[in-house]
Amino acid sequence: MEPDILIVDDELGICRSLARNLADLGCRIHLAGGGAEGLALLDDLPDPALVISDLYMPAMDGAEFLALVRERCPKTERVLLTGYCDLAMATRLLGEGIASRYVIKPWDPRRIRRSVEAILRSRGESADGDEDEEDEP
Fold it and tell me: Is-above-0.85 flag for pTM?
């Protein structure tokens, strides 16, 4: 079964961009425009491999959303995505176990892809193996 990845950001263009970058990893990628929508999608995704969430979103911020994901899906890896270089907040959320990693926007597409591949491998869910990894010329 293909692993599920949930991407949550109030800017759907960000979600779509990440999804395009990860599309050929052999995963089912789900997009949500905010925390409430992301939680609703989790009702149908009992154990997603990975949730990537923006930190600053209206109504429910990424910290609150990822804390709820941790409660509902404790084995799911959680990555915080932020456009702000708020290292103190990111460090706090990592220390509290709310997120396992953080990525600062704009991200390097190859770096985030390698991070996702490493997460999938660590869960034993690497759908396509390592054949898609390319070295920079």
Answer: yes
